[in-house]
Amino acid sequence: MTRSAGTAYLMAPTPLTRRLLITLLTAFAMLLSYATVTPLVPTAHAAGPLISQGKPVTASSTENAGTAAANAVDGNAGTRWSSAFSDPQWIQVDLGATVAIDQVVLTWEGAYARAYQIQVSTSATGPWTNVYSTTTGDGGVDTLAVTGSGRYVRMNGTQRATGYGYSLWEFQVFGAGDPPPPTCNTGVNAALNKPSSASSTENGGTPAASAFDSSTTTRWSSAASDPQWVQVDLGSTQSICRVVLSWEAAYGRSYQVQSSDSPTGPWTSLATTTTGDGGVDTLTVNGSGRYVRMTGTVRATVYGYSLWDFQVNIGGTVTPTTCASQPTVPDFGPNVRIFEDSTPDATIQASLNEVFEAQKDTQAHQFHDRRDALLFKPGSYNVYANIGFNTSIQGLAQNPDGVTINGAVTVDAFNASDAGNATQNFWRSAENMTINTNGGRNRWGVSQAAPFRRMNVNGGLDLFPASYGWSSGGYISDTRVTGSVESASQQQWYSQNSTFGSWSGSNWNMVFAGVNGAPATNFSTAPSGVHHTNVGSTPASRDVPYIYFTNNEYRLFLPSLRTNANGPSWAVGAPTPGTSVSFNQVFVARPSDSVATINDRIAGGCHVVFSPGVYNLSAPIVVNRADTVLLGMGYATLVPQGGVTAISIGDVDGVRVKGMFIDAGTTNSTSLMTVGTTAGIGTNRAANPVTVQDVFFRIGGRVAGKATSSLVVNSSNTIVDHTWMWRGDHGNAGTIGWTINTADTGLVVNGNNVLATGLFVEHYQKSEVIWNGQGGRIIFFQNEKPYDPPNQAAWMNGSTQGYPSIKVANNVTSFLGQGLGSYVFFQANPSVNLFSTFEAPVNPNVRFQNMAIVSLGGVGSISHVINGTGPGVNSGTNNAYMLSYP
After folding, report:
1. To 5 degrees, how large is the angle CA 401–CA 405–CA 409?
2. For all residues of the chain together, what is the average pLDDT?
3. Which of 174, 359, 572, 728 lies 20 to 30 Å from 879, alpha-carbon distance?
4. pLDDT for position 322
């Protein structure tokens, strides 16, 4: 559950004064009255707007719990503040910023002040300046014209008129203008990965740092005694406006959230409760400090205190930002080759060949640091482009029909070690161009992380290598193929928002969404049968952001969101619907740029294009501005150092991340990328969702990488469109092994109504996908279980053999998975068994359709498809299928 300490109030009318003649008789009263008023009340004038209502308020005392200070600024004439029965007493309101004030209205209850002052200050503790004073107060309603300024306005009572305390129905302050409201930056977790400490920890696996890593799979837990605390150092004194505590089952019944400028106190209480009930506590607070602490005083269970996450949001007025002007013809760096059709084709071909020769070798180049992008300006080219590892080819026209390759764009494995198959043809892409096959067929024989997007093929398209060997799986989107598409040796394939002349072939599962010309669903339970899954239109999609060149400048195009889409987002001769952005709003990052530089550009309003190369990150790339674009060229690779998260997106709408390659560092990262925070899970972002497209994760292979989870999605309605999360099963020496490249889970979804299309997740050591959000959907899933469990005892989920490929949480009441495949190949020990491939609550609204399981070569076994039901696979039966569950 989510709770908030903040309260919204309706504004009540300004109370009517019963001293209607006070202004007219001011001069006469000065001559005749024995009262002394200092300073004199100015001539009445039109007051500014009411600026105190609902603002933070404090008082020297309260009579009881029913007469709190906040009652005096709630706009409700039926609630009141009252003080203790002694002199002096005060009540003050914090306006949030220093502003000019011109009127104060005090609506007294029967217990009023005989003598009091109205005071202002820029500090909550003074010094105070009197803007009004009287010793002859007579209760009722005092409407006081004043002149002064301050952030804090106080009524300071020095003499009571009755035997009771001071009591106000309303304390209203009017000013020359409402101050800019301090904005609580709820998208910024100021505590993320900051230094932390605790009074105790339960064990070495539950350190204080785990409460501040934005992960819902790691936690801090204390010793089983009272009191206990955990605190974070924000690095400097900050204005603190919200704290979010995500409790594990062992929560605090009584606790305080406190702040201080010193790690040892003294501590100021920001929030306190004696009735905590666990779950997620979202606490609106008002205070400041460098250190923020949760101090638990009474546990709710016999265990200690345990927090999955402890977030701190800081305040401050946020001013709109505009990207400092960038060059519209930038230098993309040495790893980007830009071709023009005025250049001789032979010169371009030589350049293409040089890049391919440097990147084609599966043994030598697969885990190399070289990155390349091949860009073609609008025009026509007679070339043959063979695409190797970590290479992208892309047209620079606004539509695919603006760049034509008269020849081929293909990928082939030429090494003897490949044994004629394409199962390692990873990390390469083709985008936004026309291939004129001259009446023939183009070949794109790839496996994972090799998207074929926004392509226009005049002719046929073959998805298998020249040798007719195996290909493991691939992805097509927003593409037009005038001829037939032949899948042949592809094991699985996902096609989305495209138009084909026809489709031929199936092995384990071919899946289509929004594809004109695709075959209808025909999913046989026989191993030799047809296995086609057609889900109809794509429920929500957004074509990728891309770069194009026009009028002698580069621009960034942002295609529009589509719902229930069929066919490509573009049409021949017609522009893609969307928004064009000048490159003067785009920062082109280089691997030599620091994280601070990149983050400054993002915070300053820029989109960021990452030129090809390897970026070693000492801190996360942080996005807290809506509609920001992060676009990678040529498999730009982010490598987090020291266990940080590579990309952290706050609770904001419309962020687009495309074409990034995240390679885990050698120090374990709790997550490699996070989208949103746990505090923002309930926010509906369907109108402008975050999109994560062609973002690929690798753990091991290049280095001995480690990460608990690869992608954690907290933002609701996020679209995860084509990702490959891969814990390496092969790679450079010393980078692969059960205890070397460790990784629990690929994808963790906490947000609601999240859509994953083209989801590839492989070889993680626990549940590879954990789905905690409601209303989720997966269209196409390809998975291989880890190759390397040394024995069954090392791979047990409690008393169950192995971990499911997709685990839908027990509390989920709606979910749909369509076109799912999972394989085992327990190379290290073929006797290892997986009990169930999928695991989910039994609920008619939690559904799975068209599932395939495979034992590759009979090396290892699976007992059941889902929840202990459905067929299994083993050395005798290599393939099994299930139509639906439940």
Report:
1. 115
2. 90
3. 728
4. 67
Burial call 837-876: b when 16+ CB within 10 Å, e when fewer = bbbbeeeeebbbbbbbbbbbebbbbbbbbbbeebebbbee
CA gyration radius, the chain: 32
- In tens, the pLDDT along 670-700 reads 999 999 988 888 899 999 999 999 999 999 9
Contact status, residue 288 vs residue 238, Cβ threshold 8 Å: yes
Could you give the CA distance from residue 766 to residue 746 in angstroms, rounded to a whole number?
9
pLDDT of 375 > 50? The answer is yes
> What is the C-alpha to C-alpha distance for residues 677 and 190, in angstroms, rounded to an integer?
12
Q: What are phi and psi of 462, to 5 degrees?
A: -105, 130
Structure tokens at 332: 């993309």
Residues assigned a catalytic role = 784
SS3 of 266-279: the string is CCEEEEEECCCCCC
User: In sequence order, what are the residues at sequence separation of 6 or more whose Cβ sits closer than 8 angstroms to the Cβ of residue 431?
Assistant: 392, 393, 394, 395, 451, 452, 453, 454, 455, 544, 546
d(C-alpha 377, C-alpha 828), whole Å: 49
Give dist(CA 707, CA 669) in Å, integer. 5
Q: Count of alpha carbons within 13 Å of 106, Cβ hemisphere only?
A: 32
For 40-59, b/e burial (b = at least 16 CB within 10 A) is ebeeeeebbebbbbbbbbeb
Quote the CA–CA distance of 259 and 479 in Å, as a whole number. Answer: 55
Token pair for 242? 């919200």
Quick one: 398 exposed, middle or buried, by C-beta within 10 A (0-12, 13-18, 19+)? buried
Spatial neighbors of 10 by CB under 8 A, at least 6 apart, are 75
CB atoms within 10 A of CB 501: 16
Please give the DSSP secondary-structure letter assigned to residue 50: B
Backbone angles phi, psi at 584, to 5 degrees: -70, -5
Q: What angle do CA 141, 143, 146 make, to 5 degrees?
A: 150
> 704: which DSSP letter?
-
Pairing between strand 719-727 and 691-699? Answer: parallel
What secondary structure, in 3-state letters, does 445-507 show? CCCCCCCEEEEEEEEEEECCCCCCCCECCEEEECCEEEEEEECCCECEEEEEEEEEEEEECCC
Residues 6+ away with beta carbon under 8 Å from 357: none
Answer whether 14's CB lies under 8 Å from 140's CB: no
**Judging by DSSP bridges, how do beta strands 167-175 and 81-82 pair with one another?**
antiparallel
pLDDT at 523: 97
Question: SS3 of 40, please?
Answer: coil
CA distance 371 to 648: 24
CA distance 746 to 753: 19
User: Residues 785-813: pLDDT tens digits?
Assistant: 999 999 999 999 999 999 999 999 999 99
Q: Note the pLDDT of residue 262.
A: 86
pLDDT value of position 178: 47
* Terminal CA-CA length for the chain: 29
Q: Give the length of the chain.
A: 886
Is 23:42 a contact under the CB 8 Å cutoff? no
Say how far apart CA 871 and CA 527 lie, in whole Å: 12
Say how far apart CA 43 and CA 147 lie, in whole Å: 11
Half-sphere exposure (CA, 13 Å, Cβ side) for 467?
16
pTM score, whole prediction: 0.71
Say if residues 336 and 633 touch (Cβ distance below 8 Å): yes
Tell me which residue has tokens 């009141």: 80
Q: Give the residue-averaged pLDDT of 535-539.
A: 98
- The Cα 761–Cα 782 span in angstroms is 6
CA angle 592, 598, 601 (to 5 degrees): 135
The whole-number average pLDDT for the span 396-402 is 96
